[in-house]
Amino acid sequence: MGSLSSLRPDTDNFGFEQATSAVAVPLEFTGAVAIAVTGRRLTALVNVPRGDRSYAIVTDVFKEIIWGLIQGLTEFLPISSSGHLILVPTWLGLDTPDLGTSAFLHLGTLIAVLWFYRADFAMLLRFRHNTEACHIIKLLAIGTIPAAIGVLGKDLIGDIQESATLVSVALIATGAVLWLSGFLRQGTNAVEEASPTDALLIGLAQLVALVPGISRSGMTITAGFSRSLDRVEAARFSFLLGVPAIAGAALQQSLTGASFRSATVVGMVVAGVSGYLSIAFFIKILTKVGLRPFAYYAMAAGITSLVVL
Of 27, 135, 166, 167, which shows the fewest CB atoms inside 10 Å? Predict the structure, then answer.
C-alpha cells in the first residue's frame, strides 16, 4: 500500500476537484478508497491496481450503500424520502439514483414493511373468513384511490423535482405540519374501528405527499391523529397504506427503461435492513413523544438547504 499522497487522484484524468482532506481506507482486493471532502462536496475517489472495472465496481457499491441508507431511513421516518433523495445528492455532489436503482431501493423498503407487519398481512390473506380483514382491505383500497389518481399529475411533480429550493420549502412545510400535530388530541381508536371517510381523508393526505419534500408517513399519520386513531394505530395504517404506493413506485420505475446492475442488490439489502430498523425505532419514539422531534429535523434540514444550496 502506497502513501496517502500516492492515492491522490489525477484530477485531469478523473475530473474531480482537488481534495482538501482525505482518508485512506485499505481494501484487500481493490487497493484503496479515499473519501475526500471538497468544500460541500463528498466524492468517492478510488485508486485501484486492477483498472477501470474495479474502480467502477467500488464506486457503484459505495453509491448504492448511500442510496440504500437514505431510502431505508427516510421512507418510514416522517422526513420525506423523496426529498432526501433529491437534496442529499446535491449536498454531496452526486448524481441522483437512476430508475433501476430507485426500483430496487423501493423493493427493499417494501420487503421491510411486509416483514415488520407480517402478522397483519397474514391476517389480510384470510379475508374470506375474517370480517376485520375485509374491512381493512376496503379501507386500504379507498385510501389508495387519491394517490392513484394523483399519479396523473406526475409532470408537475417532475418540475418540482428539478428545484432543490422547492423541495426544501416542501420539507419545511412537512416540519410545520408535524409540529402542529402535537396540538391534536390523542385518539384511542384502532384501525379496525376506522370508517371509509377516515380512510379517504388519510388517502388525500397521501396524495399531498406525492410532492417531493412532503413526507408521506408524516402526512398520513397526522391525518390519522385527526381522525382519533391511536398513535401506534395511525402509524400502522400509514405503513399498510404505503405498501401499494411503494410497490407502485417500484413497478413504474422498473417499467420505464430501468436497467439492472449487480450493485443495485447491495442498495436493496441496505434499504431493507435500515428500513426495518427505522420502523421499529420510529414506533418507539412515536409512542413516547409523538412527531415533534421529526418536525424540528425537517424544518432544520429544509432551512439549511435553502441557505447552503
Answer: 27
Sheet holding 31-38, edge to edge: 21-27, 31-38, 41-47
Amino acid at 302: G
Q: How far is the C-alpha of 56 from the C-alpha of 106, rounded, in Å?
A: 23
> pLDDT tens digit string along 118-159?
999 999 999 988 999 999 999 999 999 998 888 776 666 666
Q: Which domain holds residue 19?
A: 4-50
The domain tally of the chain equals 2
Assess whether 142 and 275 both reside in one domain: yes
How far is residue 184's CA from residue 45's CA, in Å, rounded to a whole number?
Answer: 49
The C-alpha cell at 194 is 376506522
In angstroms, rounded to a whole number, what is the distance separating the alpha carbons of residues 94 and 91? 8
Task: State phi, psi for 33 to the nearest 5 degrees.
Answer: -125, 135
CA dist 156 and 234 (Å) reads 29
Provide the sign of the torsion angle of the four alpha carbons 250, 213, 42, 280, taken in this order: negative
Q: What is the pLDDT of residues 61-73, one digit of tens each?
A: 888 888 899 999 9
Cell 424544518, residue located: 299
Question: Would you state the cell numbers that stand for residue 63, as one nine-digit string?
Answer: 453509491
d(CA 238, CA 76): 9
Same domain, 189 and 259: yes
